[in-house]
Amino acid sequence: xxxxxxxAGLLFAQAALACGYCVEDKIxxxxxxxxxxxxxxxxxxxxxxxxxxxxxxxxxxxxARAVESTAGVDRGTVRISVEGGALSFAFDPSRHTLNSIxxxxxxxxxxxxxDISVLRVVGD
Length: 124
Fold this sequence. Notes:
Distance between the termini: 54 Å
Structural class: alpha+beta
Order of helices and strands: HHHEHEEHE
Number of strands: 4
Shape: globular
Oligomer: single chain
Strand content: 15-25%
Number of domains: 1
CATH class: Alpha Beta
């Protein structure tokens, strides 16, 4: 009996693991509380984007530099998880629109085989 209960518990626990496909899992993959706290303090926002494409873990640095060099992205705030299929960055909405930043990022990362879309924006 005890073995059956343990087996059932393991079976149900496995279903609770992160799938990596839902919005919350993608956001968690690129989440950095310190970046969000600093952004909110200076009235900036933090954008979380989904990244799709055949990307290798070794491309994270190259992608991070591409995102950080995009006009409007706050330096030092880019977080990328190729495995999680997500990226995040802070920006000043009074200086650049999210759409213009996303378009700039898309142009830079498309050459590396990635496609992006906005998941969520945090901060007011």
